[in-house]
Amino acid sequence: MGFERRLSLLAAAIAAAPLALAACTADQRPDGKSAGVRAAAPELALTPADRARDVPISAEVGTSVKGGRITDVRLTDEKGVQVRGEPREDASAWVPVTPLRPQRTYTAEVTATGDSGKTTTRRTTFTTTAASAKPEITSNLYFESNQTYGTAMPVTVAFDPPIPEAARADVQRRLFVRTNPPQPGTWSWVSDGSQAYYRAPDLWQPGTTISVRAALEGLPIGKDRIGDADRSATSKIGRQVSLEIDNATKQMAVLRDGKLIRKIPVSLGKPSTPTSSGKMVIMEKHQYATFDTRGDPNGGYVVDVEDAQRLTAGGEYIHGAPWSEGDQGNTNVSHGCTNVSAAAADWLMTVTQVGDLVTVKGTEVPLTEGNGWTAWNVDWDEFVKGSALPVPAGLRPAPAQAPHPGAVAGGSPAPVPSVGGR
Hints:
The chain is mostly beta strands. The chain has three domains: about 1-25 and about 40-130, Immunoglobulin-like, CATH 2.60.40.3780; about 135-230, Immunoglobulin-like (Sandwich), CATH 2.60.40; about 240-365, L,D-transpeptidase catalytic domain-like (Beta Barrel). Helix content is about 5%, strand content about 40%. It has three helices and 31 strands. The longest helix has 10 residues, at about 340-350. It is elongated and about 85 Å long. One of its GO terms (cellular component) is extracellular region. It comes from Micromonospora olivasterospora.
């Protein structure tokens, strides 16, 4: 993501162009020749304010410039040790690569350069707050370093307790994602504030590098809480693989780069414990797993399985189920999982990646928002509505079309919680 990159911008020298205007627009020398227009130095304002105290350790150096651009930032502590950082993409602030330390004094020296080459330098000195005794909001970044993920992998940050709606914009401003090659996206919040997802309008391009930073340590969240940690990770996107499961045919289609490479018979959830229909993402892969559902309303069993791939937080998996091989392809007998043969499950483990898209259709219940990584279970126009910050113009949905005369508003059934199963 380049968080280790130090901000070091060089101002370009711009030669003054000859003036061909009347004396009312230029100074005159004693010999009557034009001396040229007097160029104004850029105006520059900084935050935190000079001598500010009790500044959060999540502080950034805010920069507001008129008539120029930021060309140098230097932030040091009271011992003269320099703090590394980088600018926001919109140049509105300079962000330290790690949280500041409590009860330390920092000085920021910022230089702006105008088109004429004239510069303005401003300084601000501030002191950070003492270590906070406020309770923390725990954040979990479901994106690890040095991994290869599938093309549907959303960057997911989960929060406990959930983030109140009024605080989501402040939190979202501290969630950074960079992709190489660039593939812009946006964040979107689950309605209860328990998760935020980041994705692009389309699946990631294979080979893309994604760098993430959830810079939340010490961030004031609402009136009573602070963020718990600063987390970052960088990983790559691998080959394009997707699974399509159709309840009508009881078949799973395995596609690589959009081409069918195999069909596998399946047995899905029986009517009392149906499998969810929707677009899911493989969350985990386990060679061996134990399902213990003794605390679930429709559970009460313990079973060991092999080659298990998790699809939902509620406990729906794809896994080997030798006991139901006679039903696979014709009858649903599971507790919500997708049963495949032992041989097929073993083969799938060699083909799939965490982050691959899995689409299930034709079952009795829809996938519930937030039951797993559900970023792809809505279209892009709906996804961007969940952002707590304005979405860049190039990513905004197209204007809504007026409904055709006589169109009738429809509805959808209430979501039903999924059930862990086998």
